[in-house]
Structure formats: structure tokens, C-alpha cells
Design goal:
By secondary structure, the chain is of the alpha+beta class. It has 2 helices and 3 strands; from the N terminus they run αβββα. Helices cover about 55% and strands about 20% of the residues. The radius of gyration is 20 Å and the shape is rod-shaped.
Length: about 100
């Protein structure tokens, strides 16, 4: 019975730590850039769009399709950065629980 109580206590501590890390990640910001920095997109760790910055030079030639591609690429780069940070922070916690796929 003592082992079960200890296991439950460890599970509660792990759950608490995971909630803290999730909150940290949700509040963090991740920026992706494209076109040599002409376009940047900033997301929260919860994948909420915070900012889009477009250098006026990116508008100079009037190529809307190119600008759309740059915004998409910057968004994906920010998404990748947020997901990588999440995996780095959450992976060791989930791995300590012996859960497959984390």
C-alpha cells in the first residue's frame, strides 16, 4: 500500500509539473521568418497568432502571390519552433511516465 501511495504522489507531482510547463509554453512567443526576414509571424505556444510583420520592401513589387507564400512560410516556421519547444519541454516529463509516443 505504501508503494501505491508513493506512486500516486509522484503522479500528482508530475501532473502539476506538466501543467506548469504547459502554461509556460502557452505564454511563450515563437517567431518564424521568411524572405530573409522580410516577413515574420509570431505565435504563442498555444498557436495563437500574436503578430505579423511585413517589411514595406516586400510590398514594393506588388506580387501578392509571393507575399502570401512568405506569410505562409513564416507561419510554418513559427509553428515548427513552438512544436519543437513543446516536445523538448514535455518529452522528458512524459518519458518519465513511460508513455509511448512522447
Amino acid at each position: 500500500m505504501k508503494n501505491l501511495n508513493q506512486l500516486m504522489k509522484q503522479a500528482q507531482q508530475m501532473q502539476s509539473r506538466m501543467a506548469e510547463v504547459q502554461k509556460e509554453l502557452a505564454e511563450a512567443e515563437f517567431t518564424g521568418q521568411a524572405g530573409g526576414g522580410m516577413v515574420s509571424v509570431t505565435l504563442s505556444g498555444a498557436m495563437e497568432l500574436r503578430r505579423v510583420r511585413i517589411d514595406p520592401e516586400a510590398l514594393a513589387d506588388g506580387d501578392a502571390e509571393l507575399l502570401e507564400d512568405l506569410v505562409t512560410a513564416a507561419f510554418r516556421a513559427a509553428q515548427d519552433a513552438a512544436q519543437k519547444a513543446g516536445a523538448e519541454k514535455m518529452g522528458p516529463l512524459a518519458g518519465g511516465m513511460g508513455l509511448p509516443g512522447f
